[in-house]
C-alpha cells in the first residue's frame, strides 16, 4: 500500500489534490479537444481517409434485401451473378450496364467517396437504376456487409473495380490508396476465400505497374518492379496479393492492366476531361514534355473496348477451386494488358479536342513533373487477344467525339463542372 511516511505529508497530498482538480479538468478538456481535432477536423493526408472509413452506411431490412435480390437475379439462360465493386465509378458503371443488358445478375457496391465530384457518381447511379442495377452504399473494408451480401446472393463472380485511382493524388492522400487498394482488396479476398462456393474474381490492376520501363510495347512478361507512384505500387502489391490468395486458397484471379481509359461518364481528374473543361473556359492547359523536348504519349483506350475486355476476362475465368477457406486444387491466375496499342502524343489529343470543341486551346508547355506520371504507355495486347479475342476498335477521334457529345450534353443540362 502506498502510505506516506508521515501524516503531515498525507495531509499535504490531500490539499494538493483539491488544488489540482481545476487543473485536471482543464487538461481533460484539452485532451478531448485534441482527440476531436485529430479525428474529425485535421485536413491531413490520413484523416480524410479515416473520416471516410468511419462513415457509417445504413443497410439491411426487407426492402433493402429485396432490392439486392432483384438486382442480382440472373435473367438469361447462361447468365452469371456478379458483384461489381466501384459500380458508381467510370469503368464500373459501364461494365455493370453491359452485364445487366446481356442478362447477368448484377449488384453494385460503392462508397461514393468525394475524390471527385460525387454528383457524377450519383448520375451514374441513376443510370444504373434505370437499367435495373442496385448499388449498395458501403465500403469494401466492411467485412460484415460483404458477408451479408454473399449470404443473400451466392455470387459466381466478383468484378472488383473499386479503388483509389489517380497517380498525383497519392502525394496528397497516401492513406486512401492503402485503405482501398490494399486493405480493401485483402478484406474482399478474405471474404471471397471463406464463402462456399468461392466466386471467380476479375479485378482492375493498371498499366502504371510498368512504371519507369523503357522497352515498348509493354508486355505482361516485362518487369514491374519500378513503380513511379504510390498508386502504381499499390496496384503492383495487389497483383502479389492476388498471387498469394490464389496459391493458398485456390481463388481464381484475373488482373486487368487498363491503359488510360476515356469516354462518356469519365473521370474529371483525367487530362482529356479537365482539358475539355479548361479549353471551354479559355483557361491555359498544361502540356507536359519530357527531357530534351521528349513527347509525352498515352495509349488512350475507349471505354467500350475496355468493357468488352472485362466481359471477355469474366467469361473465360475458371471457377475457384477452394471451398470454405481450403484449397482443393490449383486455380487460374492471370494478368492481361487492356490497351489500344496506338499511343498518341498528348499534344495531338489537344488538337482533336480543339477541333471538336471549335475552340483554340491555350497550351502551356511544361516539364513533366516527377509526381507519378510516366512519359509514355503502350500496350502489347496479344495475350488478351489470344485468350478471349480482345480487339479494340475505337480510335481516339471517334472516342473523343462521343466523349465531347456527352460532356456538352451533361454539363449544359444545368450541371456544373467542378471548379
Ligand atoms: N480509368 C483509367 O484510366 C484506369 C486505368 C488503370 C486502372 N484503372 C483502375 O480501374 C478501376 C476503375 O477505375 P475508374 O476510372 O472507374 O475509377 P473511379 O474512381 O471512377 O471508380 C472507382 C469507384 O470505386 C469507389 N471506391 C473507391 N474506394 C472504395 C472503397 N473503399 N469501397 C467502396 N467503393 C470504393 C469510388 O467511389 C468510385 O466510384 C480502378 O481500380 C482503377 O484503379 C483505371
Q: Can you walk through the features of this model?
A:
With 419 residues, this protein is an alpha/beta fold. It is 46% helix and 14% strand. The protein contains 13 helices and 14 strands. It has helices at 7-41, 47-54, 62-72, 90-101, 118-131, 143-152, 174-194, 230-249, 271-281, 303-315, 346-357, 382-388, 396-412, and strands spanning 81-85, 105-110, 134-137, 157-160, 200-204, 253-258, 261-262, 284-290, 294-295, 297-298, 301-302, 333-338, 344-345, 362-367. Helix 4 packs parallel to helix 5 (118-131) and helix 11 (346-357) packs across helix 13. The longest helix is centred in the N-terminal third of the chain and has 35 residues, at 7-41. The radius of gyration is 25 Å and the shape is globular. Mean pLDDT is 89; it is low at 1-18 and 34-54. Bound molecules: nicotinamide-adenine-dinucleotide (NAD). Nicotinamide-adenine-dinucleotide (NAD) binds at residues 85-86, 88-92, 110-113, 121, 139-141, 161-165, 180, 184, 204, 206-207, 258, 260-261, 267. Residues 85-86, 88-92, 110-113, 121, 139-141, 161-165, 180, 184, 204, 206-207, 258, 260-261, 267 line the site of nicotinamide-adenine-dinucleotide (NAD).
Silhouette: globular
**Portion of residues within helices:** 40-55%
What is the element string, with H for helices and E for strands?
HHHEHEHEHEHEHEEHEEEEHEEHEHH
> Sheet bearing the most strands, described?
7 strands, parallel
Strand content: 5-15%
- Strand order of the main beta sheet, please? 3-2-1-4-5-6-12
Rg (CA only):
25 Å
Alpha carbon gap, first and last residue: 67 Å
Q: Which structural class should the secondary elements be placed in?
A: alpha/beta
What value does the average pLDDT take?
89
- Helix count equals 13
CATH architecture of the domain at 53-262 and 302-339 and 378-393: 3-Layer(aba) Sandwich
CATH topology of the domain at 53-262 and 302-339 and 378-393: Rossmann fold
Number of strands: 14
- State the CATH class of the domain at 53-262 and 302-339 and 378-393: Alpha Beta
Ligands, deduplicated: nicotinamide-adenine-dinucleotide
Q: Identify the CATH homologous superfamily of the domain at 53-262 and 302-339 and 378-393.
A: NAD(P)-binding Rossmann-like Domain
Could you list the spans in which at least 5 consecutive residues all have pLDDT below 50? Answer: 1-18, 34-54
Amino acid at each position: 500500500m502506498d502510505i506516506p511516511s508521515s501524516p503531515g505529508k498525507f495531509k499535504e497530498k490531500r490539499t494538493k489534490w483539491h488544488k489540482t482538480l481545476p487543473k485536471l479538468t482543464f487538461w481533460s478538456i484539452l485532451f478531448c479537444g485534441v482527440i476531436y481535432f485529430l479525428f474529425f477536423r485535421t485536413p491531413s493526408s490520413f484523416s480524410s481517409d479515416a473520416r471516410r472509413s468511419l462513415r457509417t452506411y445504413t443497410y439491411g431490412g426487407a426492402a433493402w434485401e429485396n432490392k439486392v435480390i432483384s438486382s442480382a437475379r440472373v435473367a438469361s439462360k447462361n447468365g452469371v451473378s456478379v458483384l461489381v465493386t466501384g459500380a458508381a465509378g467510370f469503368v464500373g458503371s459501364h461494365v455493370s450496364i453491359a452485364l445487366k443488358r446481356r442478362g447477368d445478375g448484377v449488384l453494385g457496391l460503392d462508397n461514393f467517396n468525394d475524390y471527385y465530384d460525387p454528383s457524377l457518381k450519383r448520375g451514374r447511379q441513376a443510370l444504373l437504376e434505370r437499367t435495373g442495377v442496385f448499388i449498395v452504399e458501403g465500403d469494401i473494408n466492411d467485412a460484415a456487409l460483404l458477408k451479408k451480401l454473399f449470404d443473400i446472393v451466392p455470387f459466381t463472380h466478383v468484378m472488383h473495380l473499386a479503388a483509389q485511382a489517380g497517380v498525383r493524388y497519392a502525394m496528397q492522400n497516401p492513406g486512401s490508396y492503402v485503405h482501398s487498394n490494399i486493405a480493401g482488396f485483402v478484406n474482399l479476398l478474405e471474404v471471397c476465400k471463406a464463402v462456399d462456393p468461392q466466386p471467380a474474381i476479375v479485378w482492375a490492376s493498371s498499366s502504371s505497374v510498368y512504371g519507369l520501363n523503357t522497352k515498348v510495347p509493354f508486355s505482361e512478361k516485362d518487369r514491374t518492379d519500378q513503380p513511379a507512384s504510390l498508386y502504381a505500387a499499390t496496384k503492383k502489391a495487389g497483383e502479389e496479393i492476388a498471387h498469394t490468395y490464389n496459391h493458398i486458397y485456390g481463388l481464381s484471379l484475373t488482373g486487368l492492366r487498363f491503359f488510360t481509359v476515356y469516354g462518356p461518364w469519365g473521370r474529371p481528374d483525367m487530362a482529356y476531361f479537365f482539358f475539355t473543361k479548361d479549353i471551354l473556359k479559355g483557361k491555359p492547359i498544361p502540356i507536359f514534355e519530357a527531357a530534351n523536348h521528349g513527347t509525352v504519349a498515352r495509349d488512350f483506350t475507349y471505354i467500350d473496348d475496355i468493357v468488352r475486355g472485362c466481359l471477355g476476362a469474366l467469361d473465360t475465368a475458371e471457377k475457384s477451386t477452394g471451398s470454405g477457406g481450403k484449397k482443393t486444387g490449383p486455380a487460374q491466375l492471370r494478368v492481361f494488358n487492356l490497351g489500344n496499342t496506338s499511343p498518341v502524343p498528348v499534344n495531338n489529343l489537344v488538337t482533336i479536342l480543339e477541333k471538336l470543341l471549335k475552340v483554340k486551346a491555350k497550351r502551356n508547355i511544361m516539364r513533366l513533373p516527377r509526381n507519378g506520371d510516366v512519359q509514355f504507355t503502350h500496350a502489347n495486347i496479344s495475350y488478351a487477344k489470344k485468350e478471349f479475342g480482345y480487339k479494340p476498335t475505337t480510335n481516339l477521334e471517334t472516342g473523343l467525339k462521343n466523349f465531347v457529345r456527352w460532356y456538352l450534353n451533361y454539363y449544359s443540362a444545368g450541371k456544373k463542372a467542378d471548379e
